[in-house]
């Protein structure tokens, strides 16, 4: 559904991306939307006739909206104006789109887009709350400067995030139903004194992507997270920690109940040996801080895993990716390691994309030049399903140190 927001043109990118991915998309446009984007654009992008109005010559609108509404697997309204949200919440059916939203039994996903004052108005917020109570899903809006030059919430969220929300709803499966995935994610803060800490640049985006993909496949997900910049899914059990030691303690408590343990966190290898209870005062001499090694969390899990458990790690490398990752795969007794490049503009800490390779115990390497972290997590889940079905950990690969990269995984 496309309604009359200035952001209507962005629906073209959504329709195009989904169509190219093999989704059968039919655009339903309100009158005001048609004044912003021509229906022919959507017909060209989707290959399907655009449904424009209740009564059109040569169509039996009644059959049309029943047929399309009932055949839809998902109803996405992007952008969704205050007007369509109000009609949907109040059951008003005065045009094709609002009528179809009452007819369909498919999940409904709204991507709101409007002026900040409208979005924050109690009437709109009450309509959104009503729709959420009925099970409608929402993605966005974003906050920032809008076309009307106001600043605040109300801007249509990026099309890529809307497409991911669509996949979340379309791709639900039960391939991991009954399985419990334990995941570490985020950074650590190792205290120096009450004011300062040693941290790292992990944003938690990779861990979030893994959690989302696992939940989508019906898994139970426990996330042990250090400080991060992302909001984790409410369907997951989230345990918040600060230091590597706290992260390690939490993993040891929960690892036995898990079928899969994934170390995506950027765990601090060292902590301050003697953190100060008082703030270090600035002085003219250098401040020397002694560090002590932290436990290797995923390595401990790998060494202690029970039969049938799958343990997966990540290798954050700036150079010699394969060699370093291969060493960690073996040293930490992992079933699979994701070797991801860090420190580049499109891969690593805080990025939405990653340049990664899967290394398996049988020596094969699966390369994935820069893809979105969600896509990598999707691929990772498929391998987890395979590894769980094998229920065995293959013998360590003969290579050690400097392996010959064997043929790509079939
Ligand atoms: O969070 P993002 O901003 O999205 O960035 C994602 C990421 C780059 C942090 C992530 O993809 C990643 O690579 N995480 C692992 C980072 C890391 O600590 O890599 P490493 O090569 O230093 O550690 C290897 C493995 O051992 C990792 O699975 C790590 O979680 C684990 N480890 C490391 C040290 C330690 N003391 N305990 C551990 O469990």
Q: What would you say this structure looks like, in words?
A:
It is a single chain. With 410 residues, the chain is of the alpha/beta class. The protein has 14 helices and 17 strands. It has helices at 10-20, 31-34, 39-46, 61-71, 82-90, 96-103, 116-119, 122-133, 159-170, 205-216, 244-254, 297-304, 321-331, 373-390, and strands spanning 75-80, 108-112, 137-138, 142-145, 151-155, 180-185, 190-191, 197-198, 220-225, 237-240, 260-263, 270-272, 291-293, 310-317, 336-341, 353-360, 365-372. An 8-stranded mixed sheet has the order 10-9-6-11-14-15-16-17, sandwiched between helices. Helix 1 (10-20) runs parallel beside helix 3 (39-46) and helix 5 (82-90) packs across helix 8 (122-133). The two termini are 40 Å apart. The relative contact order is 0.08. Ligand PMT binds at residues 184, 202-206, 244, 263-267, 269, 294, 296-298, 313-316, 328, 340, 342, 348-350.
Tell me the number of strands: 17
Uncertain ranges: 396-410
* Alpha-beta classification: alpha/beta
Q: Indicate the percent of residues in helices.
A: 25-40%
**Share in β-strands:** 15-25%
In the sheet with the most strands, the strands line up as 10-9-6-11-14-15-16-17
Largest sheet: 8 strands, mixed
Form type: globular
Rg from Cα: 25 Å
Distance between the termini: 40 Å
The number of helical segments is: 14
């Amino acid at each position: 559904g496309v309604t009359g927001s200035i952001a209507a043109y962005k629906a073209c990118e959504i329709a195009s991306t989904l169509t190219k991915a093999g989704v059968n998309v039919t655009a339903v446009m309100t009158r005001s939307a048609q004044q912003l984007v021509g229906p022919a654009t959507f017909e060209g992008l989707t290959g399907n006739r655009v449904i424009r109005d209740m009564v059109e010559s040569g169509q039996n609108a009644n059959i049309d909206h029943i047929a399309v509404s009932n055949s839809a697997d998902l109803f996405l309204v992007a952008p969704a104006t205050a007007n369509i949200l109000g009609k949907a919440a109040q059951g008003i059916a005065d045009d094709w789109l609002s009528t179809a939203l009452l007819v369909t039994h498919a999940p409904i996903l709204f991507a709101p887009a409007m002026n900040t004052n409208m979005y924050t108005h109690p009437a709109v917020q009450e309509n959104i709350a009503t729709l959420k109570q009925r099970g409608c899903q929402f993605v966005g809006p974003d906050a920032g400067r809008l076309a009307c030059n106001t600043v605040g919430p109300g801007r249509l969220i990026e099309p890529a995030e809307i497409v991911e929300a669509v996949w979340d709803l379309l791709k639900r499966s039960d391939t991991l139903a009954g399985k419990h995935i334990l995941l570490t994610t985020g950074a650590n803060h190792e205290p120096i004194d009450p004011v300062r800490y040693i941290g790292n640049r992990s944003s938690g985006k990779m861990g979030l992507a893994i959690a989302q993909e696992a939940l989508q496949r019906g898994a139970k997900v426990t996330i042990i997270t250090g400080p991060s910049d992302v909001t984790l899914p409410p369907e997951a059990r989230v345990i918040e920690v600060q230091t590597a030691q706290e992260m390690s303690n939490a993993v040891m408590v929960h690892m036995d109940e898990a079928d899969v343990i994934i170390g995506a966190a950027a765990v601090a290898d060292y902590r301050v040996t003697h953190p100060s209870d008082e703030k270090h005062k600035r002085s003219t001499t250098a401040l020397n801080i002694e560090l002590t090694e932290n436990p290797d969390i995923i390595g401990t899990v790998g060494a202690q895993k029970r039969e049938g458990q799958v343990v997966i790690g990540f290798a954050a490398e700036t150079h010699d990716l394969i060699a370093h990752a291969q060493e960690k795969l073996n040293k930490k007794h992992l079933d699979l390691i994701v070797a991801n490049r860090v420190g580049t503009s499109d891969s690593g800490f805080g990025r939405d994309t990653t340049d990664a390779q899967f290394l398996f115990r049988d020596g094969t390497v699966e390369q994935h030049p820069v893809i979105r972290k969600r896509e990598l997590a999707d691929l990772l889940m498929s391998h987890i399903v395979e590894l769980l079905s094998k229920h065995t950990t293959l013998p360590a690969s003969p290579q050690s140190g400097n392996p010959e990269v064997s043929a790509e995984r079939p």
